[in-house]
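Preliminary data (for renewal application), zinc ion complex.
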Amino acid sequence: MLHRAVSALAAALICLADAGTAIAQPGAPVREIVPVTGDLYRARNGNWYAIFLVTPDGIVLGDPLNVDFAEWLREELDRRFDVPVRYVVYSHSHFDHAEGGAAFADTALFVGHENMLRNMDGRFPQMPGDMVDRNDNGRFDPEEIDIPTTTRPGVCGFSPRFFDVYDRDGDGLVAPEELQRDIVPPDIVYSDRMKIVLGGRTVELIHPGLNHADDATVMLFPDERVVFATEFLADALVTDDIHSLPSACGPFDGSPLSEWIRSYRTVEALDFDIVAPGHGALFDKAGVTDTRRFFEDLVAAVSAGMAEGRSLEELKSSITLDRYSGWENYERLLPHNIEAAYDNLQLYR
Ligand SMILES: [Zn+2]
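Predicted structure:
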């Protein structure tokens, strides 16, 4: 943290954003704090975003992201605001959003959906990017990371760095407790909905259903009319436009497509204007509806083909979903979306 340097990119961002907030270490992700509205802010680490609401009695933070970022954010919050972080809410349990909470543990309570406890009980957790326990030994083996990483590079899996970072004891395998070492478990869990009231301000927590994760929490800031949700609304491929085909890793991360669609509808039913996602730029409620319709159209097309007894290869060569041809990643990801839907609809009939 002593060797921070302001890069050209960060310097450019300082001109656009609040002076002094965009600071990058050499080779490190750009970090900045960006106002959303009122006392609500996004905190950025590359294309990963946290969110926080400042109240007279303390801060409610959504996602600590990782150890380095959380330490940076703690310093920034201490410097800018006169109140401590009182709650850390987890959007879901995946390591790339949930690590680093220790930076706030002296003042904060940690809140997550109840399924987060199961994902942290020592068994192989529900994971993103088709990183699944193929040999059922309860550990991450190299090939279990390599298979999705090499077959879907830049989209699914992780990288060979996974073992450099997470194989803490150097035995060539990563146990769940090694992967989750830097995740502070939730102190408070809920099942359906929960409300945090702090300093006269309200934050509503909603479990939308199963999707990219099985322990998702959507944060609704009703006074600000903003929703914070990660991954299922905008995955890590989304940058400046929500109109982007989903990564579609494995059979859609092991959640039934009916649950994905239910998750979108749950968010659409909330009263808000803007989504501040965990990845990419802000978007409006219509972006949620558009993405839900993509899923519905994908399911309809693949289901119809399956009902006609057509093979996966036939479906891949005939389903075009032309309405989405202008979306990001259309060419690259449409075949994978068809295959993931095919597998999903066979698994969860
Ligand atoms: Zn995730």
